[in-house]
Design brief:
The chain is an alpha+beta fold. The chain contains 15 helices and nine strands. The chain starts with a helix and ends in a 23-residue tail after the last helix.
Amino acid sequence: MQRSMTDQLNPSSVNKFLQANPTFLRQWILTNISSEVLNIWLEDRKLGSSNRLSDSSPLSSGGLRSGGDSHVDFITEGIFNEIVVGRRRSLPATRQNLDMRRPDLAKMDDKALFMELVRDIANELDVNMLCYKILWSVCYLTKSERASLFLVKGTKEEKYLVSKLFDVCETSSIYETLHADDNTISVPFGKGIAGLVALKKEPINIQDAYQDPRFNKEIDVRTGFRTKALLSMPLLNSEGNVIGVAQIMNKGRGTESFNDKDEALFRDFLVFCGIGLTNAQLFEMSVNEYKQNQLLLNLAKGIFLEQTNLEKMVERILLEISGLIYCQRYLFYLITSENEEIYISQAFDMNADRDNEIKRLSENEVSMSKLAVFAKEVARSKELRIMDQHRDPWFQGKQVHEMT
């Protein structure tokens, strides 16, 4: 007697099939699961929930745990969750907190001091705080007056350095020395002292900076600090690639030059710093990706919950997108096509300068908007990325410079 299909199905076989076909499972969920069920699942997936799906479930493949030692996973997941929700923070690098460390550090011999400072940076996962601790520790180790750090940015073909922290000293805090996007110093590879160190992966030790033509005196004018002795060292990752350049200035308050022992100590310490910085940057990427995934899940949830109200659905989509990518302005166009012609049926405008107020554009406003040209072009080509409208070849011959 032939067995029916239902006779062949059982929880084990279904689970095995779903584990092997996650794409099918996701598509089936989107097609068949109601918004109520999806909402319950999303609530269960929230951070700190005690009713999570089991690790073996195919729906948990994007979760934090990945098998292996459950004790290690538990500890790591706890740290990750605390950082994501903002409960785990670094000790503020205030002058008072740093002053409290000096008596203990002063009692240590050279080896114990070195390992204590390495341990401190190894425990830091916040990139900004890690960079600050690196420079503060280097100043303390080498008795330098100031220290600065440049990080590598750009593409593989066109790399450059940007100042991350500048003029860090033993008594400064991270808030005083951290460079924001609007006051960073950019240095091309091969230009200046830091650029040459990054290009050649070799240190540069200068006894009198003002007698060296490679030194840029304008930096001192800008900061109000006078550099005398300067030691610049490449910061490498575990694969030997340059990820930054660290500099220390004025040993012994400018009365001494940096010697071979200082170079060796600086180089040895930066070995650990390069590894720590790479790990912190990877961790930061993981946290950001996790947060983006959570926002996308919330967006999917919102779309399910607002299927009966177009304006509320668009509002939720725009608000969730603003959590993923910060922009000054967001536009949402609904496109229709007829006889290969593309039309904009509805448009919504959200402006960050107006507290993310969302406005539904009238037909006349859409017809007068130059930005609608972009929407139609994207509908045709599927993507349009413009870095600078005045230099982009797509603008040649197009009267769209005065955008509204």
